[in-house]
Design a protein that fits this description.
This protein is of the alpha+beta class. It contains 2 helices and 10 strands, in the order ββββββββββαα. Helices cover 26% and strands 37% of the residues. The structure holds adenosine-5'-triphosphate.
């Protein structure tokens, strides 16, 4: 099966690199699938799961905002933060969710706490990624065996 080269990069470090059969990312407009031969693309990403399929168990990350670039048969996913599903501390994410919800509740009705809203989105994205990974057979998206 054809593959496409993918890099997931944060400002701190490259997080993941490999060749995949497909990937799905959380674009602003909704889930966006990319396959080998995909047309060039630049799209904004919101917090959510990135699912990389390379045969076997999918590799799942939670990412926060950023963008995806598909160009010349390569995919670059540039994001503020990216955690492999296995690294996600679900308890920390639940605490972050509760804190953000409390802040939003305490905000006057005519105001909008954008920071709390963004923190809530990040926390929910992390919880969603752990849930997705757990549902897929308990391996929580261990990286695929080397294929490059
Ligand atoms: P918190 O309030 O728990 O710090 P946050 O959404 O404010 O959450 P970020 O600013 O998005 O955190 O991330 C800061 C760093 O912590 C990043 O490196 C991110 O990958 C990591 N991180 C955040 N939450 C978690 C988590 N639940 N599990 C593992 N790593 C996390």
């Amino acid at each position: 099966m054809k593959r496409i080269a993918v890099s997931v990069i944060t400002p701190d470090k490259p997080v993941w690199e490999g060749d995949v059969e497909s990937l799905v990312v959380p674009a602003h407009e909704g889930q966006l699938g990319v396959w080998p031969g995909h047309a060039p693309l630049l799209a904004q990403l919101k917090p959510g799961p990135v699912v990389l399929r390379a045969g076997g168990e999918p590799v799942i990350f939670s990412v926060s905002g950023g963008f995806i670039e598909v160009n010349q048969g390569r995919v670059a996913v540039f994001v503020e933060t990216a955690e492999h599903a296995e690294e996600i501390d679900a308890e920390r994410a639940r605490q972050a969710e509760m804190k953000a919800r409390a802040a939003l509740k305490a905000t006057p009705a005519d105001k909008m706490d954008l920071q709390a809203l963004a923190a809530l989105e990040r926390a929910l994205a992390r919880l969603r990624a752990t849930e997705l990974a757990t549902r897929r057979g308990g391996k929580r998206g261990a990286p695929p065996s080397p294929q490059n």
